[in-house]
Amino acid sequence: MRHRIVSELMTTDVVDVRQDATFTEIAKLLAARGITAVPVVDDTDRPLGVVSEADLLRKEASRLDPAGLLPSLRPESGERTKADATTAEGLMTSPAVVARPEWTVVEAAQAIERSRVKRLPVVDESGRLVGVVSRADLLRVFLRGDRAVREEITGDVLMRTLGIPPTAVTVHVVEGRVTLRGTVERKSVIPVAVRLCRSVDGVVDVSEHLDFKVDDTGSPAADAGSPRRAQLSP
């Protein structure tokens, strides 16, 4: 089992700017390239921060309404400084939160969530910019075909990791929703199988309809009348 890594998903044709790039230059660049943010790098191509559309819009939002109909915003001092900035150095959100090419999609997604950003500059071992990975890039793992997801679960999760033959458990995948049906040797394997299936890239949900031969969890004996959890004789 393996998660897709950042280097497989990131954009490598990266547009960046230096600290002295002007507000207008950045706005034109975003419009021309159809992007919503740009990394700011130093002279050695190491990311210092990111300028996004939101950073640029602070200037417009801070202006007075000519008609006097809208209340004026009173940004905090740091936001006020950004609204007054005219170059990337003052406009950018810094320090840059970065990712590494070898990170898994899980690591990158967690970094994006913790930092509340929409994208991460990707840097090599020397800290130089080599790409950008965005939320949209990470979501591409959910575009995997159902067949690819089913083959990974059957081969990697069930057979190689848990030692469950395909004749024991069948795997159905429809639009990323996984259903497991069959019989396993031990009851304790069931939650493990579900957890591992959930970790497969492209899986949206997992439901299981699995019977077991031996209850090795130490729980009270299964109700013999239960058609699904009845303990079977070896």
Q: Could you give the order of strands across the largest sheet?
A: 1-2-3
The secondary-structure element order is HEHEEHHHHEEHHEEHE
Amount of beta strand: 15-25%
Structural class: alpha/beta
So how many helices? 9
**Average pLDDT across residues?**
87
Rounded radius of gyration (Å): 26 Å
Biggest sheet descriptor: 3 strands, mixed
Q: Uncertain segments of ≥5 residues (pLDDT<50)?
A: 222-227, 230-234
Please characterize this protein's 3D structure:
By secondary structure, the chain is an alpha/beta fold. Helices cover about 35% and strands about 20% of the residues. It has helices spanning about 5-10, 25-35, 55-60, 75-85, 90, 105-115, 135-140, 145-160, 190-200, and strands at about 15-20, 35-40, 45-50, 120-125, 130-135, 170-175, 175-185, 205-215. The strands form three sheets. The protein has a three-stranded mixed beta sheet. A three-stranded mixed beta sheet has the order 6-7-8. α3 (about 55-60) crosses α4 (about 75-85). The model is unreliable at about 220-225 and about 230-234 (pLDDT under 50).
Outline:
InterPro entries: BON_dom, CBS_dom, CBS_dom_sf, CBS_domain-containing, UCP036990_CBS_BON. This protein is of the alpha/beta class and 234 residues long. The protein has helices at residues 6-9, 23-33, 53-61, 77-84, 88-91, 105-115, 135-139, 146-161, 189-198, and strands spanning 17-18, 37-41, 47-52, 119-123, 129-134, 169-174, 177-186, 205-214.
